[in-house]
UniProtKB/TrEMBL annotation:
One annotated GO biological process: lipid metabolic process
Protein name: Acyl-CoA--sterol O-acyltransferase 1
Location in or out of the cell: Membrane
Organism: Theobroma cacao (Cacao)
Pfam families linked: MBOAT_2 (PF13813)
Keyword Membrane part of the UniProt annotation: yes
Amino acid sequence: MAEASWNLINPFSLLLASLGYCYFLLTRIPLGILRFMFLLPIFYLFSILPWYFPSALLRGILSFFITWIASSKLLLFCFNQGPLVHCQNFPDFIAISILPMKIKEQPTSSRSAMGRYEPVQLFNKPYLATSLQDFWGRRWNRYASNILRETVHKPTRNMLTSVVGVGPARVLALICTLVVSGVLHEMLFYYITCGKKPTWEVTWFFALQGLSMAFEAALKKWVRTKGWTVHSLGSVILTCGFVVVTFYWLLVLPVWRDGRNSCDC
């Protein structure tokens, strides 16, 4: 019983110790690459944290909120960006790092946590999306979308604009962001499937979404030049139909085929 309790407490202790290191020590390191270098051990610890749990569900949840999202927030923090910059104490830092929460711009006088924090909106009626850009950018998992926008899309677009121009940079940044999202989702399924070698079907799913979004934008521009219009209901059906079919083909089937609830041999 004592060993089982230790196995449960240990990963949470490791998580709190890692966040304590970031809050109390990392803040004393100059911003930029040097702070990033001091953060590398935390990235490693966050990558092994899900393996402490035998359940595929817990591994999936931990790998999303800790290995991916918390690591991304800490990466932004290295360059004085992201939500962690606004944390004024260690409890704030813990809550904002690992939970889909943000500090209210005007906190209420309540002493409870909900008086200081508010949840980040995860979904915004994705079934009403009229385009792939609307679906992925504004309606589906806005929590992850916002993180990817700050960590991948904006830096890539800014870097490429002076090289290829505004339009191509925007398209390339979009596709790059979706590919990175695919790789990160591949990582999540790596934990869920007990370290099974990835088939890269999940990455192809997101790469396909990025390419389709670029094609969709070009098609819309061409349709406007013709003076044509597409009924909003037709747009919703086409958008949701495309996402559902490709989601089932490249995301659901691989997990269904390879997922295991326990990593015990």
